[in-house]
Amino acid sequence: MLLYWIILPIVWVLARLVWRIEVIGLENYKAVRDGRAFVIASNHIANLDPVFIAIAVMDWRRMCVLAKEELFKNPFIGWFLRCMGAVSIERGKGDTVTLEKVTNACRKGVGVLIFPEGTRTKNGKLGILKSGAFVIAASAGADMLPCRIIYNTKDGKLHLFCRIRVVFGPAIPAAELQITDAGHKVTALRHMKSRLKEALELLLEQNAFDVQPAQTQSVPPEAAVQNPPAVAEGKRQPNP
Fold first, then answer.
1. Does residue 164 register a pLDDT over 70?
2. Average pLDDT, the chain
């Protein structure tokens, strides 16, 4: 924990020197950070996404971040991620031990950051949402806070010195994330995924960077006089 308090300010300064980071909707984060259980559900484009979210909230209370196991194979990156509160999870292997550990932490009021897509998207668009985030939120009785990371680049991916927006939307209340009927669990999860997807797409629609219109080359008036439009085929010019 001590290393987290030391590293976070350093990372905050370095990231803001390299990227221009803008935070929108921070009041929505503060509204759920009151000791209640909450899950931040974000889109996922770059490996540095969890760092940008940590910088955006700049909270001295460390979150629990679910990260894919492959990221921890590099000793330095693994050490850094653990300092930031990351927990490795084996994707596609039913890692119930890790999910239970994270759920218990969430019940105690620890904020959990999850990327429901399960992996980074290659085109910057929202991918298919997996069920893990909703299972944790339902089990912990947690609110779910939609978060959209937007990069101001042509391909929607992270590049050096690009502008970044981290946008937090209104939370989905815990009561709307409960699975009350085990017989209709699949239907309930499908509804939750649809609800979160709509919220994430709305955040992009409302906060996307303005696309600069292509500049059209204007024709000087003198050029128009010197080069009159061609006479349409089949029409004869009147005799002088």
1. yes
2. 85
